[in-house]
Amino acid sequence: MEKEAKKEAFRKYLESSGVLDALTKVLVALYEQNDKPSSAIEFIQQKLGGPSLDEYEKLQAKFSDLQIRYDELLAVHQEKSQKVTIMYMLFCFPYINLYI
């Protein structure tokens, strides 16, 4: 009995969160395709909003490139921030020897 209650609770969860409706719509769309796609999984992923494997790999490559660029810009920013801080200290406190 407890197992049935868990199943029913899970079914209600899927229904209330919209999963059943989304899956039903995708499966109906797949069924109604005159020319069935070679990969039903890719069709379902595409319809549910996920990128294809090719798109995912391109996004991963772009992310890697952007991460490298971000790291480069962050290093430049940190270097410039240090220089600005030193210049500020020299301007505001000319009597302090920063090279001790």
UniProtKB/TrEMBL annotation:
Q: Its principal location?
A: nucleus
For the keyword Nucleus, the answer is yes
Localization per Swiss-Prot or TrEMBL? Nucleus
Gene Ontology cellular-component terms listed: nucleus
Q: Does the keyword Phosphoprotein apply?
A: no
Q: Per the similarity annotation, which family is this?
A: Belongs to the AMY1 family.
UniProt-listed PANTHER family: ASSOCIATE OF C-MYC AMY-1, C-MYC-BINDING PROTEIN
| Name of the featured protein | c-Myc-binding protein
